[in-house]
Each structure stands twice: as C-alpha cells, then as structure tokens.
C-alpha cells in the first residue's frame, strides 16, 4: 500500500479539483484559479502550477494544453494514454502498467518539485492545482475509483458542482463520497444555474457545514464561432473572471484553509498537552514536542507531523525538503493491536455509515437487530468450539473480561455452594498475564507495576509459572524459567515452530500435569483456597511482554483444571443429570482472546492452537477490523444455565447503554467476513508458503462476501506461520544484541539482551524505537512502534503487504546495527 | 418527525426506483418492471401499481401517464405542481404546502391501499413501484433531499445506474448516498453503455457487495419518428424487453429479497434467543415471541416487528391490515438513555464515516489527533467549571467512573498518606445510586439486587439518606425519607420547581449540614473509617429509580465533604503551597453526569444545578448524540498533579485500546455542537416558555456549526424546565393510581401507588408499559418504554417535537385510565 507522504507542503498551496460529474467545468475552474493567482495582487508573489495526473485522448485535446493556452503557467500531465476513453479502459490496451502507487508517487514527487523555491519567509508562494478526471469516483488506470487512488495524499478539495439539471443531487452525492474517504472539501465552485436554482440550493445546503460556495458566470457561448473568435472570447472571459470578487474570495479561502491546517497541526501537540490526560503516561516528563500529531492515516501508515523532533533534524539523513509537513510512518503497533484491515478502509466506513443511517443505536435489552445476531452467529461459527452457544456484548476487552469472570465465578459458586459475598473466590492464571484496566479485570492479574498504585486492587488468585517458547540464535526452544528445570524439564529444541504445536508427537506431559496438580494441592488442600475460573491468553501474553507460552503447558493446565476437585458439588441430582460432555468441570475455562484472537496469530481462534475448548471466550480489538470499540464474550450452555432462575437477581445483571450497538456490530460483521477472505487470499499465501505451507491462495477481491463454512475452512490454516519472513526472524535472532525473538501470525517481538550492568540496557528498546521513528533511513522509511520493557515488538495488519513488511524488517535490522555501533563507540570511550 | 410505519407489507412487494442522476431512464425501467410483472408467468397473479409521489410540469408530460400508456396497470401521482421545475422551486410558488410528513403519510396510505386484496395464501400478490424524481438527493417539495424525506419508509431500492459518460462515478456516489441513509439497494439496473464500459465496471464493483446489476438494451432511437411510430416502437421495445432474461432475473431478485427480509424479521427473535445472552435479563422466562425485532429506527421511532404478540391481536383496536409487517413505536427510553439527536441522523452518520475515512482508529498513547482535542476542549468549555482542566477518554460510563475513582483515591491516599493496598478506603455516596457494572463502579454503589450475586462485590463506602423532590397531587414537595423528619425537617412545598433550586432564597441548610457532619463523625472519628471520594449523580439518580434528590442536600453534602477533616495532610510544605482555590479539599468530588449531563436535564452540565463545581466529572451516553460508546472523565489540575512523579508507576496506568477513537470523538464533537444549537432553537423554546421562561428561540437550521461562548451562553438556560408539558405533569400527578411524578429536562418518571397488599401492584408499571406498546390507541400510537420497579419513565431525545410528545402524553393518560378501570373491575369481581 502507498507510503507516500500526504500532500501538505508548507509553502505550496495544493488543491485537488474534483467534479460532481463529468462536464461540469473542472478545467475552466482550474484555469481560472491558475490565472487568478498569477495575477493576484498583494505582497506575495505566486508561482502557479497545474497538474493533470492522468489524461487520455489525442495530445491536442489534453487539458494541460488548454490550461497552458489560457493561463500561461507551468502545466504538466503525469500519465498519458492516446485512446480517448476512460483511463481504466485505455490502460487495459496499453503496454504501460501504472499501479496506483506509481501514480501517487509521481504526483507526490511533482508536488515536491513544485514546492522548490517557494518560501513563505521571502513572500514567494506556490499554488498547485491538481485536476482530476471525470467525477469523484471515476476509475483511474488501475480501475480503482480515483478518490481512492489519490487518498494517500489527502489533498484538500475544491469541488466543482454540477450546474445542470439534476446537479443538486449529483453535487451532494459527490461531496458525500469524498467525505466518506476522509477528504476535506474546502470550497464548492459552481457555474450559474439560472432558473434551476442549483447554486442557491447548494449554497444553503453547504453553509451549515461550514463550506462556502462560489458562483461563477457561465462560460461564453462559442457555438458557431471561428477558432480565433472562440479563443478571444475565452481570453476575455478569463481576464474578467479571474479578477472577479468570487475568485478573490475563493483564493482567500484556499490560502486561509491551508494556513489553518498548518496551524492546527502545529498547535495540536500543545493543545493536547493542555487538555488531554493520556492513557498509561507519566505526564511529568512529557513535552509537547514529544507528542505525535496525526493528520490522518491510510492503510498501514500514519501521516505524522512532529514537533521540534522532526526527522532528519538531529540525524545526518535529510528526509525531506523543509516544505514537507507530513511524513508517513508504518503503524508498527497496529494502533495498539487493533488494526486489521488498514486505516481509512472505505468498506468499514461504509459499514459504519450504513448502520448509523439504518439504526443509530437501538436499545438491546428485550430487543434485537440483525447486525447483532449476524455477528453473534459468525463468531460462534468461526470459533469452531462446540461448547460455545451464547454471545454477550460489551464495549471493550476489559468489560468483556469482567463479564467472563462474573459468569465463571457465579457458575462455580453455584455448583460448589460457595458464598462469594463472604468467601474469597480466586482465579487461576499465568504469571505476567494482563486482562484489562477495570477493577475486576485487574483483580485477575498478578501484582505488577500496573496495579501497584491502584488503591482498590488486591489481586485475587494464583498465577502459575510456565515454560516459554523462544527463538535463540536461529533455533526454536522451549525453556523453563530460571531454576525451574526440575519442575518443567530442561530446554527442548525444535527445528520448526510447528513441531512445538504438534501434540500428537509431544503427547501429554506428565511432568507439567504433576507440577500443576502439586501447586493446586498446596493451594486448595493445604491452604483451603477456593478458585472459580482459569483465565488465560492462549499462546501469547500480550501486555505482559509478548511472552510466548509453551502451548503444551497451557493445554496441560486446562486438562488439570478440568479434572481437579475444587470442591464437592452441591448440585441436585437433577442438575447433575443435566451435565453433558460440553459442560464445564473443575473450574470454568476462560480464554482471553482479546489480543490473540481473530487472525492476530493467523487463525480465527487463538484457543484452537491449544487443541482444547474454552467454556468462555472473550473477543475485542480486531473484532471491528480496527475501527471502534466492541467486545463479545462467548459462553457455553452450562455457564448460561447457571444464571437461569426464578429470581431476576439470578440473572447476569450486567449491561452497558450501548450494548450491541448497531454500528459496532455491523462493522464487526463486515470486518469478520473481510478478514476471512483475506485469510484465504494471495496476500497471506506468500507468508504461509514461506513458512512451509502447501496449497495456493485465491483471488478473492471480486467475490461477493458471505460467511460460509467452506470459506471459513479455506481460511483456516492448520499450520503455524508468521507474516514476518522466516529468514529475517532467524537472522535477527542471531544478532549479538538480541536475547531472543518470537513470532507468530502478525506479531514479531524482539527481546534485547539485558545489559543493565553496563548502564545502557533499560532504555535500549526505547532507543531502538525512537531511532526507527526519527532517524530515517536512506529510503526515508519511518516505523512507529512500541516497547514493553526491553522488548520491542512489531505488529502487521492483516492486509499488510510483503513489500511493506520487508521495508520494516530492513529498518529494524539497520537500526539495530546503528545502535550496536553507537554502544560500542561509547563503551570504547569509557 | 414522521411516525409512519416502514413500507413493508407482507403481500405487496414495494420498491423505490432511484436514479443515479436525472435522465438515466427511471421511468422506462419502472414501466418495464410493471409490464414484466403484469405478464410474468407462473402460478402467482400479480397486481401491479405505479406511484409517482411528486410530479411537476404539465399533466400531459407526467410520468404516470407515460407508464399508464405502456404498462396498462394502475398508476398515480400523489402531489402535483403545474410548473415544470424542481419540486422545491415549484412548491415555493404554490399555495399548497406539503410537509415531508404529509408526503410520507400519503405514500404510506397508498401502499396500504395497494396491499388490499393481495394475499400470498391465495396466490395473488401485489407489486408497487415508487418512482423518485431526479437523482437520489434531488430536493422534494420541502427542499430536503428526497432520500431523507422518504427515509421513514425505508423502501428497498432498485437503483438505475447512469449509462452515460461519467456514469460510473455518479452511480457509485448515488449508491453511497443511499447507503449512508440506511437504505438497502437490492439491484442496479443500467442501460447498455457500449464502449464506455459502465455496465462491466459497475457489475464488477457491486458484485462483491452482493448487489447484482441487470443490463437493459438501449431505448430505441425515435428521433424524427412520427408520434404513432414512436409509440409503436416503444410498445415493441417493452413487449420484448419485459420478457427478457434480464427482467426475469430482476423480478426474481425483487421477490426473493422481499421474502428474505420477511424471513429475517420472522426468524430474528428465535435466532436471537438461540445465540444472544441479553443484558439484565432473566432468560428463564423469556420466549422468542417476547423479543422485539427492530428492522430499523428513524428520528424518535423504532420500526418494530413483533412475534406472536402483535399489536391488536388481543385487543379490540385493530391496528393495521395484516399486510403491514412493521409498525413505529416511540423510543420512550431514548434507547437506554443514550438518544439525543434522533436515530438515523445523517449528520452523525456522515461524521462517523468521515472520521473512519480519515483515520480509522489511530493509537492515542503518546499521540494525538484533531477530533480528540476538539472534543476535549468543547467539554471543558461547555462545563463552565473552572476546576476542570484535563480530559481522560474511555469507552463507556462504567469505565469512566472507574477512572474517576482511581483518580480520586490516589489523590486522597497521597495527601493523607494512606496505603490503599492494605487499608480500606471507601467512597461516600447516596442511597440508591448506581455507577456502572464493572467491579470498580459496582463497589461505589450500596448493596442491592444488582450486585447481590456478583461474587467479588463487597461495597466499599457509605451511602447517605436524603430528602427527595416529588410532585404529588399537582404540588412540588421536598420530602424527608420515612421517619427521618427529625434529621431533614418536615415536608416542604414549592409552587414552582425553580424555587427548589433557588439557593439564594433557600440559603444554606444548617440542618442538612449538621446531619451530614454527624454521620461523618460517627464513621471517621468513632469507627476510624477512611474515605477517598464523594461520588454522586447530580439531581437525578437514574438506575436507582429516577430519584430526584433535593439539590440543596447535594450541595450541602459537597460543602461538608470539602471542609471535613478526613485525615491529617501528609503533604510537604512545598506541596501545600501549590494548593489554590481550585484544589480539592476534604475528599475529591466526583459528579457522575453519565446519565444526567449533556442536556439530558436541559443543561450542558447537570452539576451546574447544584451551583458547585466537581473535581472530577464523568460524561457518556448522550456524548455521541446516541450513536456509539465513548466516555470522557474530566479532572482538575490538583487531581492531575497527584499522578505526576518520577516513576512510571505514579502515573494513571489505565487505558483501553480504542482510547479516544477518532470515530467516537468526531461524532461526539459534531453532536455536542448540534446539541448546543438545538438547545437555543425554536424546538426547545416552546417547552421553556411553557415552564415560564422568557426570551425567544432562534432559527438555527442554516447556521454554520461552530462552538463559541456566545452560542453556548444562548443555549444555557438558568431556569429549570422540562420537555413534558406542565399541565400534563400536574394532571397525571393527580391521578388516583399515581403516587408521585418527577420531571426535569427530557425526563419524566411516574411512580405508581404501591398496592402490593391488593396483589396487583408489583407488576402495575410493567402492565402499563406493555399496554402502551401492545394495546394500541385509536390513533394507532405505540410507545416503547422501560420501568424501574413501580416507576414507569419516559425520556425524549433533544430533538423530539411537541407534537410527538403530546401524543406520548395522551397515550400514557389513556392507558392509565384503562388500567385503573380494569383493576376496579377485577376488584369488584372479588
């Protein structure tokens, strides 16, 4: 996906001219604007440029020629096709292939060229008019609508309205299509519409939206005129109109909005520092200049304006001419683990808008709507877990976990006859686990720096030690924690990551199970403690530091937790008789798939890696493809039954106002279907193949989206693989500064050697992160990432391409090299 | 706003024909479809109708005439203007005023008429084609875009694509404008486009979206033909094409989608019962037939399909012909207290789509974006609370309250040197208060049925008694709880609700303050308990049962809590020196404005009614105008400072992945601005006037939206008023079955007399609720509402009109009468 910088250059005012339809007068408007700025009075000298990115037809009819004739300033066309048809038709018959990226890069380069020499300080400014072709959504050479093709540049728009019959409708629709794609329409220009009243109507329509409309007199009637007469007439038209009040106001608006956008970007960090309390942030040490201002985002890339800490400022690599205000940075944390289908994905925008238009939010207690049911059914189907039958909606992972815990504790208390209101019922979990920041979710995590100063936190449970999976020096290993070889056995090596998950070969682990039983005996039998749930993140503990747990240990834990006698059952014979093979036993098992589920690790369900089925499963983050918060807690029938009773108070008395909000559910249902298509597409096939999987990907781009078991099956991979290249993973694991690496699905985490004795270590990962973001490489590639202690991690979205990921890998390796060299230099000085 | 039933009739297949632009052949397509069904083979007999809702120009050129000539079935035009211009222009010059409501009602009535006689069982089905005018967004007589005008009917759409140059763009844009408004586009029809390739392109574009495109041969060239020749040629064209494969497939699609929609609505409740775990619901007793299926919603109305419990089925009032599948019900709980700007508000849909298109979600830790900052600034400004300086975002009221409590406890523990990890720090609150369902929020509420079976709940705090405000028998009163006259004084009566809030006259209450201090002395001095916050909902306790607390008591509580010595300060002299008049003292004061704030009670801040300023203020529900979840916790500088330190662990280590999600923030910023405009508009003026306020409303419809202090000031009312009529409130309070009534802002709550001894009481409110929903009145008005114990409450959105609310009031009074009569009849039988 394109990683061009958005088209915002400090001293060059760039606008894209879109038309409400073909034939509305875009070229005339472009010419007028050009001429206006050339002749505009005042202290500023304007250098004007005109660009037609794509032109079809014979050269003598090209728009740039027309503009050049009447406007006398620089004009250019980037891509030309001789056939006088739509670009996507012309491109098919042409030997020249122009991808969207090429087109955008070319336009981007041209804008930088136009910006050269312009300088606000010296009173020389540039204006570049980029004229689009046809209507807003007319296809470009690749066949994609041009508003999608040019979206990475997100140029501000002057929309030429349609002054003809039907033009009110087409102008507003065109505007809406731009808005959905995140464009800022800064002005509407419309030719006189006379009795039709388009101008008056549109003016009134756009006024409350803060968008002015500028009316322009009709183009002179040149029918029957000689060629020379026509040219003279038009010259005179342009002479007069370029100096009209309308054009002055329009010019003013164009300049003002450009300046306002720069001002917004410049002041955002300080305004943020003033008004915002950031999550997980020690504000004492944060300066405005350290706050990243995002203008927008598209695909895998943020468009970023930095404060004083501009890339290139304190490095030797000059990133860009000073004109360039924004630069793209790879969203290397998938925006806190949420991103799946790319920023600004028009399909998700449309899904959100449709549900908003059809429902808004409709209350869900005692009621229902299609998106909520559709999503619930998709989740239950996709999980392929026969235990799960019911879906409870909340707003985020933390609230979803609270619900899961309430479910499990109630079921356990009921079966074992415990009184939760007086007895301490704990949960079982893993060391380093994390489940969210509301109190109930926090209580399910062991004491750590995150809850140390949460005054109501007590930590209710026991958290197990476990062996970890790591790649060290190019080899996969399962390692016991330091000093626990006796409990877990010695380090085991594996040639292939798949072997670690091959439970047929590895078998059950009597050692693991004995260890777990021993711990439980101590807790339950010796200390008399009570437990009401086992809660864990399958495979990968996220916030705990991207810890890859030996899946066999997790499987063993589930097995033991299910057969262990946590207490004598107090159920009636009738209740006992209702239990079946899918009922929970021991304690209810909760899989927190908030981070790991829904294809983050390459599979619909991360629990499936453990080849065991949870009784309760929690899903959020990727659920909406990375657009907005929503959470689903899935539960089994035997959990659900624990809440059936004659009293209202027997029910699960939990709910949020926006429970199952239609916008979230519809976006999520759309997103799940898209994710399943991506999962069986060519995009993922290359990665799977690199990790040793056979079979081919499919071209799914044009298939109607629907959820079928067949599609799901083809999307499921039974192998373990990663979106990161196996060679790269091996290489980096062999680097002297790298302690170990883990990767699975879209996640890569690099643990740096702890050199705390030498004094550099504690912030080595943070230094690497900053270096990847601020000290740009020769190919000007910035990567935004996050660290957890001495671990730096990277996360792709499900639609990241191999090209993009290769670039990210290159940057990481390069910056690691630079960091190491610097450290050595400093050490040698001491 | 229109309360027409959506246009879904069981045995009448209705489609609206929209055009991608004017002149694309809508009338020809309508004619073809009509002819096709007339002549369609098979067992079913089709009765075809054609409706042109609005027609301008001379009668001989009307579309219905054209269709009638070629299709030979019933045709009609609902509204005619002789002038051959756009309807909105023609309407201006016409003496006949057609409001949108009238137009929709007329069309709705015509559809019911068309449905008469049709019956699936007997193999006689109807097809009605409703042809729109111009493009999708062409203005109707009122000037609103017709897709907005007809939205209440939400007819399925056949979109006629544009086969001409530029038609690819205009067709997709038209489709997107329909989608944003919640329409289902079921088919695209497009005339041959030849070399332009529109048909091929559009087919490919819509295929993955599941929408088929049907190509139709060009209309015969009749230029130069005689009138008769033209007619003959067209007849022959229609003869052939109406029987073409394309038309058969299109007809099939139209029928299938109609049947599928019916099936979805019919099966939604049972599918819901299968897959959904509802919030706050005892599932043991719920049958599928009791689950309301919402097809959609618009303005204040749900479009509802009921199961077996159809309205009219067990009442004498026949509501509608059996054909009508959906009926509108007033959303009387404002969709669980969230709704502010109406369901399906296109401005909010567009805001959501724009932010999704521009950002998707972008990570917020260490970063920022415009919508988050804009919203934060709007909130801080709108609150007019000089203490508040910082905004922390979370996803819903419950998580926002958890954050508020974490903030307050930390600040208190720090100042008083308490160790929260070992000492029990409680909160102070009011009896009957409720703050959310996550554990931390639950802990701040007193024990009740809601947390009785939450196994980790302990209830950490003390909850005060207080006097209540009620209207009884037409008179406002402040009443002490039973048996507490000594503590709170005897019942006080007030002529005007404003007098209750007139603290200048009422003065401080030494009695209230002495009582509060006495309680605190007992808790703190005698029992040694520690408290870290005062948490309360200003004015109205929502989930506790719509309890209207004496505002003077709440003010007294804040005053005492601020001056009481909860412990000796452990701050350094330096820290003490930093305290100023805006710093918290005693304990931090948290106002939970989640339900009461943002104009729910008629003012931006409900805390402002108490004439005191909180240190922490929590806002959700109405924040996004009723579209999706988002919460903002606002805090003062002295609270913020408590988290500044050298350690990361000193910071507020709380955050959700979608913190400050751009979609939510932008929708909320848009919504706040809209709410402020509504608050000073004519809409509210009538209510304010009825409650004794002077001054006039303004026509704000066409003003550009921006937040300025002037606008805010004009939106603020210093008086207390309600959207419900004062006469109605008085009348209902005098009803024999009514114990008392409260109203303020958009909220009305009616407490029924507790007749539990006679055995009818416990479900009287529920009976009233069901009667309002299922036993429809003569004017067929259904109201969806919620009850809390023996309280039935109603809540308007901020844009509800007087007309709608009057209707709701009528229904409530009428049903109350019916209920009373029934009870008397039953009693007399005994």
From TrEMBL, chains A, B:
Signal peptide stretch: none
Listed InterPro entries: Aminotrans_3, Aminotrans_3_PPA_site, DTB_synth_BioD, P-loop_NTPase, PyrdxlP-dep_Trfase, PyrdxlP-dep_Trfase_major
GO molecular function, one term: adenosylmethionine-8-amino-7-oxononanoate transaminase activity
Record key words, sorted: Aminotransferase, Transferase
One Pfam family hit: AAA_26
Localization in the cell: Mitochondrion
Keyword Manganese: no
Record has Transferase as a keyword: yes
Gene Ontology biological process terms from the UniProt entry: biotin biosynthetic process
GO (cellular component) term, any one: mitochondrion
HAMAP family xref list: BioD (MF_00336)
PANTHER family: ADENOSYLMETHIONINE-8-AMINO-7-OXONONANOATE AMINOTRANSFERASE
Protein name: Pyridoxal phosphate-dependent transferase
Source organism of this protein record: Clohesyomyces aquaticus
